[in-house]
UniProtKB/TrEMBL annotation:
Family recorded in the similarity comment: Belongs to the chloride channel (TC 2.A.49) family.
Regions that span the bilayer: 73-101, 122-148, 168-188, 273-291, 328-350, 371-392, 457-486, 539-560
Main location: membrane
Short name of one Pfam family: Voltage_CLC
Organism: Sesamum calycinum
Protein name: Chloride channel-like protein CLC-g
GO molecular function: voltage-gated chloride channel activity
Keywords: CBS domain, Chloride, Chloride channel, Ion channel, Ion transport, Membrane, Repeat, Transmembrane, Transmembrane helix, Transport, Voltage-gated channel
GO cellular component terms, A-Z: chloride channel complex; plant-type vacuole membrane
Top-level taxonomy: Eukaryota, Viridiplantae, Streptophyta, Embryophyta, Tracheophyta
Subcellular location: Membrane
Amino acid sequence: MMLPAIPNGMEPAADEESSEPLLLLQDQRSRSNTTSQVAIVGSDLCPIESLDYEIIENDFFKQDWRTMGTVSIFQYIFMKWTLCFLIGVIVSLLGFLNNLAIENIAGVKFVITSNMMLARKFVVAFIVFASSNLGLTFLSSLVTALIAPEAAGSGIPEVKAYLNGVDAPAIFSFRTLVVKIVGSILAVSSSLNVGKAGPMVHTGACVAAIMGQGGSKKSGLTCKWLQVLKNDRDRRDLVTCGSAAGIAAAFRAPVGGVLFALEEMASWWRSALLWRAFFTTAVVAIVLRALIDVCLRGECGLFGKGGLIMYDVTSANISYHLRDVPAVLLLAVIGGLLGSQISFSTLRIIPRYKFKGFYIVCDRKGIAYRILLACFISISTSCLLFGLPWIASCRLCPSDASEPCPTIGRSGNYKKFQCPPGYYNDLASLFFNTNDDAIKNLFSKGTDTEFHHSSMLIFFATCFFLSTFSYGIVAPTGLFVPVIVTGAAYGRFVGMCVGSNLNLNHGLFAVLGSASLLGGSMRMTVSLCVIILELTDNLLLLPLIMLVLLISKTVADAHFRFSMASRSHLVTLLRKKLFFKTPTPVGLDAFLQFSADDFTTKDLGHCDQIDDIELSEEEMEMFVDLHPFTNTSPYTVVETMSLAKALILFREVGLRHLLVIPKVSGSPYDAPSTLFFFLVSSKLQGLSNNGIRLPSAYIYNKVVSGMLDLDLAKKLK
């Protein structure tokens, strides 16, 4: 059932006399319809709903707020800060366990494969490597496709949509959270060129949304104290804090997490939200620091050097001069082009997956195809990772190596692969590691002679290719870390070409290369700068990183450019069936039939649906009064306002809808349009009982179309 639409060219029936803004439940199918065919009776409703972040000042809100005393207000504030603390603790634990699981699963795989290689059983080693990768990818795509398709991808677009007022079903459900965690662990452990930072943002948002809903009424598990937070505005704040905590847990970058949520995720902030987000990420940083101490004691199993991503990669006395700047500028320009190409390729490839039946959330018939696609990419990745090191030449172990060469076991810079004793394979040292450890190797200082030019170029091309094709599979995958890896290889290659004449070492060029590709693909500056600084733990890099990010983003932008009540409230009204046979105002009876809790945000995934409501033919002819439930103070603008200024209001104020006041002209009774519309609105709102009685929809239609006759204008005045 849908609201009746009164087209511009429709005249009211003669017996329709009402000046009250009532929701007419009568079927309009017998009337002529010249409106868009998208909203016709009987059509399937889109499951996506917009959110009201504006405070709806209706009668229920005012009555509920007036009844709140000092204790209730203290409870409200206390619960928000407590939830922020709990979100920080839980997200940090999940981030640590995520890293721990990935490092150990991948570590076991690499150790077994390396042992086979040492025994010269190369075919068996490839079978073990490829089959383990295929099994992990298959499980990740299977649980995602069958249990929670909403968990596919990074989840950042979904979180951004929610924070900007668009709510899609089940994106923050407990089922999605579980699949996001498990699927991300399996996918990243399978040696696919995907990352865990994006899924961690979605994980943090899921944790925040689930905690803010106050339990589940369906399961009988509810918390009365949390009921005060069951509204779109407070849940948005918690989700913002959760997304910031996700980045902080992925990179151990608390300040970068706050800035990432500010710059990339939410479009509207206030000082109180900034404080809570900062508090949440601070909790994440403290908990992670305590957990890392446990790993430093050797109690985390096969935990690699890159675990939890902290790259102390530069010396304390970095020095660079004016003659180093041209090479950095060239690196930034090319990096911006490459980063924009990653975004462009991803946008081109993922729709092709969809066109072929892959990765369609609502289409269960394409599950087999989507899983097969993921498996095909896994096999292709395994072949490349295992086959390409064979074309790299063996290099003699350096005499002053800071670790054993060749490396035997989990991680290291000197993988033996097929080389004889005393030699190592530099390409295998990058491929046969997790992305975290590969970044650690590339960022390392004092390793200018460790890699060959051809090996670095092959590694860059492979990562660039795999990152664009692996991101769109039906699995929880991120693109942040793969771009860092690709950029590090690119920067290191540039450093190998020009580094002999400059003061910057190859590790520093790798850091700047990652910054350039991140700026070109992610189109961010401030948050990326702080995240990279927190990763490398060296403020001396700040000027160069700022320069690279500004240039790469500018280049990428240029290159890419030239290449008034909500549905849930209405459903609640229909479910309660407060209907009248005549268009009669409900008055105070509404406060006896409803409570403020009836209009709170429902539990995730359990909101009322219009299809669940059954109405008889008699009820379909009845009326519902919307007076007590509509927002009496919406944001309004005049129709002469430009679209650009209206967009600023939507984004910065966080609006769901904006009331446009029409301009009435061409009449000797022309008056300021705002006053005129106020008079008409008063008639529509039932604030005046004098004057003529016409259907409210007819009055509104005539005002909008500018066809209100002069006699009617006189009576309204």
